[in-house]
Amino acid sequence: MKLSDWRKLVPGDHHLINGKVPPGIPIGTNSTILDIEVILGTCFVTWNIPGRFVGFRTPIHVHPRPQEVCVRTGAVLTMIDGRDDTINGAGECFLMPQMTKMANLAIGGNDTVEGDVGYTDFDVFRVPRYEPEWVVIEPDHLDLQGAQFVREDGCMHDAHVM
Prior knowledge:
The chain has one helix at 3-8; strands spanning 25-26, 32-39, 42-53, 56-57, 61-62, 67-80, 86-89, 93-96, 102-106, 117-128, 135-136. It is mostly beta strands.
């Protein structure tokens, strides 16, 4: 399935989460693979996310499958459609629900100042072959689709076609 097909599955305005534009500036980040294993056509991938500077966020996106995030340093404000916004700090993990609009804003911890990385984390993804890890849906930031998760392994697929 192409990214445009995934995007059509997401109802509502792709500019909004819970009826409002999320704060912060959308930006990608260069994630790296910590571990990967393919079992019966499903890729289990652990990503190192080097984080975003305070005030920057992910573009609004969905995950085709539920995925897990564990915050290593700092803090992140997580905005998920249909849920209250939550702050997750170092040592905390949370579930990113399937096909639900979301964004993560780097807010940092008590000792974080502007210009610092607001948080770092690792993501644990279970991704069937030929599916993307995420689907960027925010209309003005579709170009960030390939700016976070890039694989050159046994799970390579053509799902990143715009």
